Amino acid sequence: MQKPPTSPNDPHGPDWERATLRELLLEQVREQRNARRWGTAFRLLIVAYLFAVLFYARPQGFTWPGAMAQPHTALVEVQGVIAPEFDANADSVVTGLRAAFEDKNTRGVIIRINSPGGSPVQSGYINDEIMRLRDKYPDIPVYAVISDICASGGYYIAAAADQIWADKASIVGSIGVRMDGFGFVDAIGKLGVERRLHTAGENKAFLDPFLPQNPAEVSHVDGLLDSIHQQFINTVKRGRGERLKDDPRLFTGLFWTGEQSLELGLIDGLGSASHVARELVGAEEIVDFTPRRTLFEELGVGLGTAALQLLQPGIRLR
Length: 318
Hints:
The protein is an alpha/beta fold.
């Protein structure tokens, strides 16, 4: 009697191994196709996400210099710590100021400041450039407008403007100089750390944080700070002139509200950037000339930079 033909999938048939292998290969092909589809979809989603980030991270309200073909008020922002590695560095701010003054449709320049201060050198560069541009373009008034805070190096910059305006609750002043660091003398002793320092030059280990403070070194630093402080005072007096009240607290490092600052002669009035543009400059349209970092430049700025700057000894108008 003849046996009925067996199915290829019959586990007892002679071809079941081949059939099983075929099914496995087909399933692997199907999985690879699905993986490619999902991979393509995932890549498309990443591209769409990056485009969305680039779109929403673009500077809001920014108009390229020269794009406004009608009279306007130029705006340059000084935002954050004034230092080379931050947005409010002298090169960036000066670049924006020059573009603002050179635009033929600029009727006035507003420097909007929201800064706790920073480097006296960077602040001095900006102050000097404002004074130079004022001399070069005498028909273009310059106004400093304070938002939340304009302290120390921020006020060093503001003092170069024709007028300073602020909100009644703004923080203004802190005309002083500081140099700070840390001392680890007792810490390394408790940790059993042996300090090994080799120098050529008796002052090369000046203010070493692992050594006790040297009175002669402290005296030298005090002299430096006093000298820079006097430069700061002279700059403020040059900019504000007789508008400053004769108050012994002005140059002690204290700070005040906008209302109090008005009484002390540190500012000229209370108002926002739009108020100044509309009522003083007479050109209500504001064009932002502040140079901006691209998104990739922002991503390239390391988060550790600020922490390192805070740990490093340095003279600051803060």
